[in-house]
Amino acid sequence: MAKEFGKEDAVFMPSGVMAQNIALLIHSKKEHMNSEELSKGLDRRFACHHSSHLLLWEEESYSKLVGMSAVEVETKNKSVHGGVCVPPMGLEDVATVFARQKEQYSKDMTLGETGLTSLIIELPHRELGGKLTPWNEVISIGELCRTEGVRYHCDGARMFEASAGYG
Q1: How many Å separate Cα 92 from the centre of its chain?
Q2: Cβ distance 116 to 46 under 8 Å?
Q3: pTM over 0.90
Q4: Order of strands, edge to edge, in the sheet holding 151-154?
Q5: Less CB within 10 Å around the terminal CB: N or C of the chain?
Q6: How big is the CA angle at 127 (ends 44 and 88), to the nearest 5 degrees?
Q7: How far apart are CA 107 and CA 74, in angstroms?
């Protein structure tokens, strides 16, 4: 996996719950924050889609094990054939949440400096029947995260599933 993604190293995890919490812990390491930020006691947070398995199925393990809180990225439901369709997370959704976080915490710092440590994207979105965020938006969300000092994380087990959808 490391070679495939041009990374220095990779590690296999026996469960998704374990992997996600370790990823959150690594992404939120206190050494990523400077002493001024630590003295402010900033709330360590991560952002994810409102249908994320971390929110629906993992009984707030991120709070209990890692001491973090979740910021839900809401999407605008769409009406399809008389029913409701929940779309995957998109660039506009992330930009909206980031703007609200900046307004709430500080317009003068990057979001990473305010304690928003990471954004988790699920590709494909399991709870949405395998929907994928359009690839150009995946790239743009990554650029927005870099600009704001927020680490961008995708569950590695899903990468091969997503590759089929993206061709």
Answers
A1: 14
A2: yes
A3: no
A4: 69-73, 45-49, 116-121, 151-154
A5: C
A6: 70
A7: 21
Cβ-contact 116, 71 below 8 angstroms: yes
31 band by pLDDT with thresholds 50, 70 and 90: low
pLDDT digits (tens, 9 = 90+) for 51-88: 998 899 888 888 988 889 999 999 987 767 777 788 99
DSSP structure string for 51-99: T-HHHHTSTTHHHHHH--EEEEE----EEETTEEEPPPP-HHHHHHHHH
Residues 111 and 147: beta-carbon distance below 8 Å: no
End-to-end CA distance of the chain: 18
Chain segment 33-54, per-residue pLDDT in tens: 555 554 455 688 999 999 998 8
Q: What is the mean pLDDT of residues 152-159?
A: 80
According to DSSP, the β-strands at 83-85 and 78-80 are antiparallel
Q: So where are the chain's domains?
A: 16-166
Which residue type does 61 have? S
Beta strands in the chain (DSSP E): 45-49, 69-73, 78-80, 83-85, 116-121, 151-154
